[in-house]
Amino acid sequence: MPGSRRNFLEAAMPISLALGLPNVTAAQSKSSTPSLPRQSQALVELFGLKYPIFQAGFGTSTTVPLAAAISNAGAMGAIAGLRIESAKDTVQKLKAATNRPFYVNILLALQAQNPPAILPAVLEGGAQVIQFSWGLPAREAIAMIRSNGAKFGMQVTSKESARMALDLGADYLVCQGTEAGGHVQAHRGLFETLPLVLEEARGKPVIAAGGIGDGLGIAKALSAGAGAAMLGTRFLATVESAAHPDYKRSLIGAKAADTALTMCFQDGWPAAHRVLRNQTFVNWEAAGCPPPGKRPGEGDAVATRPNGSKLLRYANQSPMVGYEGRIVECSLYAGQSVEMVKDIPAAADLVKRLWDEYGAAGGRKRKA
Ligand SMILES: Cc1cc2nc3c(=O)[nH]c(=O)nc-3n(C[C@H](O)[C@H](O)[C@H](O)COP(=O)(O)O)c2cc1C
User: Fold this and answer.
1) N or C: which end of the chain has fewer CB within 10 A?
2) 10: in domain
3) pLDDT (0 to 100) of residue 362
């Protein structure tokens, strides 16, 4: 991996500025129409959204119906974890299901090449926003995006990685904090990193991700200067996501302290991740967090996929609808935002609820 790319992933955060959420800097309209904070208003206008709410690209648990429902409700839907064979078709299906904006997430660390082979396919399918995480896109990838008139964003975790993304011309940044569910690129908490990324961004839109699961969390993120909030775990627990029903049910009622940032489920991708502390995790922790080869129950097939292949205990794949077996012993990715998961609503209802909660939390509503 070239040095600059490694630096991007490993860029350490300077010691944070003292925290304290700035007041909402709402651009008070002179008319009676209320408005969003200024930076958020700019972001919704940039993308043509109604609400400054983004779905996170949570891998293969994203679905076309989920992204379409979120986009049609006025937020930013997302599709991720695409396979090269079906990527173009999936994006075309999503375009047919919504005429509103959505983005395609490409996780660069898991791509064999850079530019990723999947990029031309999703652009041909009509993707207008590409969001990269876990790496820096090659300049050829950016040229491809630009020649299709598309925008791109990048997940960053520090001032330094923000600078690298901006130097590449990113249209927006996603600032991830360690509260996040799934694989965690971040090294610091969201509200520690966000001010540093905002300072570096100098007006470029920054979206806050990690631990946000309700309207109050969205209000806090916007109040701290983010243009929008990105929610993963909360949207995972919806009717339309492809997460296994037992996985969704296990999210309900869990507390932030029921999650752990760990290397437990590292098979397939040895990177840090936040999961629910399930039986597999608890047994592994009790054994002293041993490395591969020495883990309790290693080699157990805990679930079977619809195609008959086995999901092993420490695999990095979370269980999806159609899997059978001991689902709750698989890797159950969840952010600290799991604390806000109380039910499994339809995604469009959730968007509306989040917006109502945002208003009740003191956020400023505008006419949708
Ligand atoms: C089940 C799951 C799968 C994820 N997969 C991806 C992924 O494929 N690509 C990515 O960039 N981030 C992925 N993430 C991380 C999200 O992009 C985001 O940072 C995170 O969900 C935000 O924290 P929250 O879950 O507390 O909202 C995943 C998160 C979850 C919960």
Assistant:
1) C
2) no
3) 78
Q: Which one of 111, 183, 230, 321 would you pick to mutate in the ligand 1 pocket, going by the greatest count of ligand atoms within 8 A of its CB?
A: 183
Does the residue 224 lie in any domain? yes
Q: What are the CA-CA distances from residue 237 to residues 243, 250, 341 (Å)? A: 8, 10, 7
Ligand 1 centroid to Cα of residue 55, in Å, is 9
Cβ proximity of 340 and 234 under 8 Å: yes
C-beta of residue 179 within 8 angstroms of C-beta of residue 211: yes
Pocket of ligand 1 contains residue 58 by CB under 6 Å? yes
Inform me whether the pLDDT recorded for 31 exceeds 70.
Answer: no
Number of folded domains in the chain?
2
CA of 182 to the centre of ligand 1 (A): 5
Q: Is 223 found in the same domain as 200?
A: yes
Q: What is the pLDDT of residue 10?
A: 52
Q: Let me know whether 134 and 254 are in one domain.
A: no
pLDDT tens-digit series, residues 277-326: 999 999 999 999 999 999 999 999 999 999 999 999 999 999 999 999 99
Query: Atom of ligand 1 at shortest distance to CA of 234?
Result: 27
Mean pLDDT of 54-62: 98
Same-domain status, 326 and 222: no
Contact residues for 202 (Cβ-Cβ < 8 A; gap 6+):
none
